[in-house]
Protein: Type II CAAX prenyl endopeptidase Rce1 family protein
Organism: Lactiplantibacillus nangangensis
Amino acid sequence: MKRFRTAGLLWIVMIITLIVVGLVFKDTGLHQLPFFTKVISQEVVCFLIVYILNKVWSRQTVHFISPVRLRKQLGVVWPLILILLFFDISVLTIGPAFKGVVVNIITVLLIGLFEEYLSRGVLFTLFLTDLNGRSHGLLRATVFSSLLFSLSHLINLSHQSFGVTLLQLGFAFAFGFLLCGVYYKTGSLIWPILIHAMNDFIGFNTHPTTSLQLSSTVVWVQLTEIVVIFVLALYVFSRHNKITI
């Protein structure tokens, strides 16, 4: 259970790190920076911290290059890519000018890099290694890492209502569940990063500086998305790619 404890401790350390970094950017002269500049800077700092912690403490191998042929990787991710690409193109019709789009792309890629490196690259791998050979080890590792990924979004209570945050927790759990499958079945963290970024790109081009207001429409949309994500997760986990991560 050593790796299990390491995963929990690393998660706590990174939550504290997120809070501290957020406070530094809020309560110092850095708060005058443009919104996206602050977000990009925070994501870079947090990624560097988790990268260093993994190298000196958790020591998990994070795979960016997959041993599986690209054709088989695409067999796992193509429905997700097509769905997200449709919505990404749709929001561009009402989104910012080209310069704003470029900034958004850089931002969501950095967010995806940090969150996927931590949640799938390190935490999921720690759980999976610890539960290897045990009954339903893959399922349990996926649930545990997705739960931590979901609980990380409690930080959003600092600027939005409990109801909206609760919906985000459910969405994040389902999305994390799906991305664990993507990483496990493709053997490359590039795909979870890309899918994560494509999903965040939708929000950053529609309401980048404001949170959602809770309404019956928002609730039903989020619940529908959660159901769709779990269906896609079933598809991903059903693929027969043989990979060791």
Observations:
- Residues 98-130 form the longest helix (33 residues).
